[in-house]
Amino acid sequence: MKLYFTPGACSLAPHIALRELGISCELQKVDLATHRTDTGEDYYTINPKGYVPAITLDNGELLTEVAVILQYLADQKPASGLSPRSGTMDHYRLIEWLNFITSEIHKQFGPMFNPKITPEWKQNQMNALGRRFDYLSTHLNNRNFLLGDSFTIADAYLFTVLSWSGYLNMDLGKWPRIKDYIARVAARPAVKEAMREEGLIK
Ligand SMILES: N[C@@H](CCC(=O)N[C@@H](CS)C(=O)NCC(=O)O)C(=O)O
Predict the structure, then answer these.
(1) Which pTM was predicted?
(2) Which of 53, 90, 130, 139 is 20 to 30 A from residue 33's alpha carbon, by CA?
(3) For the chain, how many structural domains are there in total?
């Protein structure tokens, strides 16, 4: 298996999941500015969507979309508990979170990295994210992780997108529970390993 990633991008979520699951996987870095891998390949020839993450499976198939890759990885080690058993209410909750993170948080962050963003647009995005953070903060009131006491693939994804608040110098002071959550996930050995490997921490 090979994971195509860009340091600190949403591909960090499957990278964390791989580490948490103890699945060995080749890593291939992609430069999103040039859409070339660090071995010089045109990334569009590998993933026509042009974005990370993508994984190539041992049978040569390509799988994309963070939320789907995460579920695929967790299904390789069902006993890990990184995803509740299919058909249970907890599993639907997990999917509910994955969809919320991808559409309501991940994609609201995107424009914040656009160098052409206007102050008004930025404020709009910040307001939208702020409403999501309010919701998250209430949810995390009495829980260590999204589904309760156990870390799941949804936490790998949520942590990854929330970590972008650091690069953007966003003030999370209004949401201390979110700051605590980020610190809690960041302290996990597998998360540290993945971040170290991507050169995000020493
Ligand atoms: N729908 C995709 C979105 C992935 C995505 O937004 N990837 C970003 C990095 S976080 C990217 O590669 N952007 C560069 C591009 O679109 O060319 C998913 O959920 O995997």
Answers:
(1) 0.98
(2) 130
(3) 2
